[in-house]
# Entry
Amino acid sequence: MKRFIRTMWPIAILIFIESILVGINFTPHTNLVGWDNMYPELNFGLNIERSLTSVWQEYRGMGYMDGMSHAANLIHYLFLWIMSFLLPQQILRYFYIFLTHLVGGIGIYMLLTYLLPKKKKHMQWIALTGAIVYQYCFATIINLFP
# Structure
């Protein structure tokens, strides 16, 4: 147990910082509206069908060959559909955005702990700093900005 606490405290710090971010930015009883104009939570069946048949987009005017790769969102839609059994519709997008932000930071932390030399004394602090810099870098925030 002590070894687990010694190795996982940076992840707990990342979760704590993310929970502060959620607390500041979450507005109850609102929908998070993004630039993508794709709201699978309004009709999961239709949007999953559109992802499966995403080469030809009939529902857009006279139809056209899709260049926006809606099929790439299939896993996203399936995940949101599963989470819709546990969370209200207004919270689904907030949950997904903040979860991917947190998972990205934890992923960078794990990558840096793997890549940095193990003999370095302050390796966890360096990896944690790198994860925080990655999470709050403008390029990362812009990719997640709805």
Remarks:
- The beta strands are 56-57, 64-65.
- The longest strand covers residues 56-57.
- Residues 3 and 142 are 36 Å apart (CA to CA).
- The chain has two domains: 1-30+89-146, 35-86.
